[in-house]
Design brief:
This protein has helices spanning 3-15, 21-38, 48-60, 65-84, 111-120, 126-141, 145-149, 179-196, 215-224, 237-250, 255-262, 267-270, 276-288; strands spanning 156-157, 162-166, 172-176. 55% of the residues lie in helices and 4% in strands. It is mainly alpha-helical.
């Protein structure tokens, strides 16, 4: 297995392509898996037999189209990297057709369920205040978990009700929030963060010991918050992001504006939300007609 080349590919993804750690690790695993299955020790020795044998192996594993698409994308990018550095004469993956991924309508809460959750969440203890503020900000801005946990105090502009968010690829954008989220965050800062702050972290949201929060902590907290709404939808942090996008669309924001606010690199990602209003109207119509199926 050409591990030195894979390590160089990882550095290329991190420095030049500015991919996330999660994406880099997944791509490296995919490339390593290919060489393990193909039983070949160098890219220059790879031929059509190895490629088609690998495709058969993926098919036998009965992976989802999304997983297969990512693996082929990883190999395509790896070979493009090899060609640029003259380690391979051609890219055998460029001609391979990738499976089509069917777009799914994102999971989200309707507005009444979102407000029900936020109203019902406990706010008595310092941790309650923090968790409530986190949900308010997630719903208001649609920011990703990684963006939220690294959000520094200096990024908050209380006068303009906005914050600077560092997104994927180190791209900075402005996220907007209303007075409701602003009040919740400031209440948390005054009644919890000021007591917890030890100088270890300048993040807005920290633990009682002053440490930055982990993604797993946010995931567990959001999962636990499902008990505070009556919808059948079980939200995750990413569903909060979907909820924000759907609320923006329902209230008149354009697809292009939503793309900018959420930091989507492709407009195609944002266009998934174009189906949301129609689905809501259909549900409301059926409910009004007494159809509960």
């Amino acid at each position: 297995m050409p591990q030195p080349l894979i390590d160089s590919f990882r550095q290329y993804l991190a420095i030049q392509r500015q991919r996330s750690d999660h994406t880099i690790a997944a791509y490296a695993r995919d490339v390593q898996q290919f060489f393990s299955i193909a039983a070949v020790d160098h890219p220059s020795n790879v031929n059509d037999t190895h490629v088609h044998g690998y495709l058969r192996a993926l098919n036998n594993q009965k992976l989802s189209h999304k997983s297969i698409h990512r693996k082929l994308s990883a190999l395509d990018q790896f070979w493009a990297f090899l060609m640029a550095d003259h380690h391979a004469p051609s890219n055998p993956w460029r001609a391979i057709r990738r499976p089509r991924i069917r777009a799914k309508i994102p999971t989200y809460l309707e507005e009444h369920a979102m407000l029900e959750l936020l109203e019902n969440m406990p706010k008595e203890t310092p941790i309650d205040c923090r968790n409530h503020a986190i949900l308010e900000l997630l719903f208001a801005t649609g920011m990703r978990v990684a963006e939220l946990i690294q959000l520094p105090m200096g990024a908050m502009d209380w006068e303009k009700n906005e914050c600077r968010v560092l997104g994927k690829g180190q791209k900075e954008r402005i996220a907007l929030f209303g007075n409701r989220a602003k009040n919740a965050i400031q209440h948390y800062i005054h009644h919890a963060r000021q007591q917890w702050c030890t100088g270890i972290s300048n993040a807005v949201f920290i633990s009682p010991k002053g440490h930055p929060l982990s993604a797993r902590t946010i995931q567990r907290m959001v999962k636990a918050a499902n008990q505070y709404h009556s919808s059948s939808v079980a939200i995750t942090p990413h569903a909060c992001r979907h909820t924000c996008a759907s609320m923006l669309l329902v209230h008149g924001a354009s697809i292009r504006n939503i793309q900018e606010l959420l930091g989507h690199s492709s407009i195609a990602t944002t266009q998934r939300y174009a189906h949301v209003p129609a689905k809501q109207l259909t549900q409301r119509f059926l409910s009004a007609m007494g159809d509960t199926t």
